[in-house]
Design goal:
Layout: E1 5-8, E2 11-14, H1 29-36, H2 48-58, E3 66-68, H3 78-91, E4 96-100, H4 113-120, E5 124-128, H5 134-141, H6 148-161, E6 165-171, H7 177-187, E7 190-194
Parallel strand pairs: 2-3, 3-4, 4-5, 5-6, 6-7
Antiparallel strand pairs: 1-2
Helix pairs in contact: 3-4
Length: 198
């Protein structure tokens, strides 16, 4: 059975979709499932009611954060992220984070995604930057949209501007840490790193 909600490293994660805006060269659902101990490959996307029911069961024990993150882009279900976040803010004091590829703004013309997330109660957002140049990003993440890297950088600025605690993430095996740190500094946010090697 797929896991719509799962625990990992002291946090609760919500796996809303396997759909994505990128086709990253390093993304492997079977490896990620093994690393997290959760079945992340979905045969269908969960209903909001199912997510909330799973959250109620898992919130019986302590956790640090509730994170929208699975194998896919959670903000493809922006309205559901907002609705679930509002439920969590109303019923818990646990901070909410969204992990995103950061290139979804163009899917919602006329909407300010960062503002909507902040108003719903999202405290933190981690944006997968992964590369320090547009060409490297295109080769590594293979975005489905043109000019995705520029969109991503604009979204980083917007999230920071709207008061979200914003980080950009990189993979140590695939990005130069010194260059990544310099880029994050220029953006005015913190860089975080994860490794593909276990």
């Amino acid at each position: 059975m797929p896991d719509f909600v799962y625990r990992y490293k002291g946090n609760i994660y919500i796996n809303l979709t396997n759909r994505c805006v990128n086709r990253c060269t390093f993304c492997d659902v079977s490896v990620l499932s093994k690393d997290t101990g959760a079945q992340l490959k979905l045969d269908r996307e969960p209903r909001i009611s199912e997510v909330i029911s799973d959250l109620k069961a898992r919130l019986k024990t302590e956790c640090g954060e509730i994170v929208f993150c699975g194998v896919g882009e959670p903000l493809l279900r922006l309205d559901d992220v907002i609705q679930i976040t509002r439920w969590m803010v109303h019923n818990t004091e646990i901070p909410v984070r969204v992990n995103t590829a950061g290139t979804v703004q163009r899917l919602y013309p006329g909407r300010d995604v960062a503002s909507e997330l902040r108003r719903a109660g999202v405290k933190r957002i981690s944006i997968s930057l992964n590369a320090v140049t547009p060409d490297d990003y295109d080769n590594l993440c293979r975005p489905k949209y043109d000019d995705a890297y520029e969109d991503l950088l604009r979204f980083v600025h917007r999230c920071k501007e709207k008061g979200l605690e914003t980080t950009v993430s990189f993979i140590t095996d695939l990005a130069d840490e010194e260059q990544a740190e310099a880029l994050a500094l220029a953006l005015g946010v913190k860089a975080i790193f994860r490794s593909l090697r276990k």
